[in-house]
Amino acid sequence: MSDRAASPVPATATKSGPTLTDRAQFAAIRGLVGALRLLGWRGASAVGRWLGRIAYAPVGIRRRIVERHVAAAFPAYSPAEVQGCAVGAYESIGRTFIETAVLGGGSTQQVLDAVRETEGWDVLQDALAKGKGVIAVGGHIGNWELAAAYVAARGVPMAAIARRMANPLFDQYVFDTRTSLGIEIIHDSAAIRRVPRALGEGKVVGFLCDQDALGLASTFVPFFGRPARTPRGPGVFALRLGAPVIFITCARRPDGYYRVSFTPVPVVETGDREHDVDEIVRAFTRQLEADIRRTPAQYFWHHRRWKRQPPDTPAHLREP
């Protein structure tokens, strides 16, 4: 049992408590989720797709950033192809958000029903058989929340690293939603202490490692040919604790259901710990890029992945 689950203290606590704005935002979200659950999984997903399209146009939230990122990653795309991929990315993130929101009120069977195809389940089983837990790396592609819920629904003990959210009421709601799906939440501030324990208990510990990271806990590796600052945590824990590393992607199929894939990530020890950690980071980033190329319109292009780069980065490889 996790420290959080064993404690009556809320997942998010502040000295002053939630503000009126926090309460209003949370009430609106809860009302929307309650209404969407009446539509069922597919109906709610359709609403999410519609909301995502509105966010692209007319609202235009980060639209230019998304289009620049798609064009930089796929330089052979025509302007129409860039726009089509960008629209798809907005539709995908809208569907993912809404699907995840309604999933929390469902059952284990609903999670299993959402996934119609698996690729490499034996990879996860072989990794678990080593008896040292498993480090599962993923990215913001398809429905990453469903990926963790699916592993838990198959009876595999699952934990996930997560950041706290600004709204304490929504943070608690998301915490409760994830735990209701069988996922133990480890906040990033407690990862150094709790990840070794979770791995020692034979759990799969999930990391999302495709957003810009600061400080010594990150390294620069190529992502679509441009240096991108990437978290080193999975590599550090893998080498320190001897845990195998796999990459998980939960991609949406044309019929609206999902394919979950499991791919081994090589862990090689040469005696040079810093080099070996960076090689693991490069390896899982290459796998992420390969999965994105399979379904580019399902990636979260909204994040400024190349915001921070080495000072000697050539001009043509800087943030687009």
Topology diagram in text:
Layout: H1 3-6, H2 20-37, H3 40-59, H4 63-73, H5 79-103, H6 108-114, E1 115-119, H7 121-128, E2 134-138, H8 144-153, E3 158-162, H9 168-180, E4 183-187, H10 191-200, E5 204-208, E6 218-223, E7 226-231, H11 233-241, E8 245-252, E9 258-265, H12 273-294
Parallel strand pairs: 1-9, 2-5, 2-8, 3-4, 3-5
Antiparallel strand pairs: 6-7, 8-9
Low-confidence stretches: 1-15
Spatially, the strands of the biggest sheet line up as 1-9-8-2-5-3-4
* Beta-strand share of residues: 15-25%
Molecular shape: globular
Distance between the termini: 45 Å
Q: Profile the largest sheet.
A: 7 strands, mixed
Can you offer a commentary on this structure?
- The protein has 320 residues and is α/β, with parallel strands linked by helices.
- It has a domain at 108-317.
- The chain has helices spanning 3-6, 20-37, 40-59, 63-73, 79-103, 108-114, 121-128, 144-153, 168-180, 191-200, 233-241, 273-294, and strands at residues 115-119, 134-138, 158-162, 183-187, 204-208, 218-223, 226-231, 245-252, 258-265.
- It has a seven-stranded mixed β-sheet, sandwiched between helices. Strands 6-7 form a two-stranded antiparallel sheet.
- Strand 8 and strand 9 form a beta hairpin.
- Helix 3 (40-59) crosses helix 5.
- The longest helix is centred in the first third of the chain and has 25 residues, at 79-103.
- The chain is globular and about 55 Å long.
- The protein starts with a helix and ends in a 26-residue tail after the last helix.
- The model is unreliable at 1-15 (pLDDT under 50).
